[in-house]
Design goal:
2 domains; 2 helices
């Protein structure tokens, strides 16, 4: 009877030790309680956001920080010539990464200038907003989350190919 107890005790201890090793060697699902939104995926407990989204859980469209009415102050980059302060509005565009800028460069264009947002940068690809054979614009704007301002750098090119570069701070 004593040997059966010893065998049972040995079996119990062996199964317990095996179970403890198995339990501690299993990796826990770090994404179990993480809910990534807007097509984001979880890896190692952290969300990787789909293009156009940001935030801990991909809850915010990256372009949202750009969308509002801005007070703009631009100047020619190579001179001290400053344009009069003006108001420009930014709204969402066709896709989640697109924005439309009205009254860009102090209403230089009748139509909106279109930009693509990636993170804190809005990129204006070379375009002729008014499709009239005249001016072409290109540039970038960087959003500063601390100051909540956009710093722009852009060019306007006339039909003869002459360019003027501008910088601006929008708040």
């Amino acid at each position: 009877m004593k040997s059966i107890k010893n065998i049972a005790l040995s079996a119990f201890l062996t199964v317990s030790a095996f179970g403890a090793v198995l339990y501690t060697s299993c990796t826990k699902d770090e994404c179990k309680d993480v809910v990534c939104q807007n097509g984001g995926t979880c890896s190692g407990g952290t969300c990787t956001c789909a293009t156009g989204y940001e935030g801990t859980n991909c809850e915010t469209a990256s372009r949202d920080k750009f969308i509002k009415t801005w007070t703009a102050s631009d100047k020619e980059a190579t001179t001290t010539t400053t344009l009069p302060t003006y108001t420009s509005g930014i709204i969402g565009g066709a896709g989640i990464t697109e924005i439309k800028i009205s009254k860009f460069s102090d209403a230089y264009f009748t139509n909106d200038v279109v930009a693509t947002v990636k993170g804190n940068v809005a990129t204006i690809a070379s375009q002729q907003p008014d499709n009239d054979g005249y001016y072409v614009t290109t540039g970038t704007g960087t959003y500063d989350a601390t100051t909540k301002k956009i710093t722009w750098s852009y060019t306007l090119k006339n039909p003869a190919g002459a360019e003027k570069s501008y910088t601006g701070t929008w708040q």
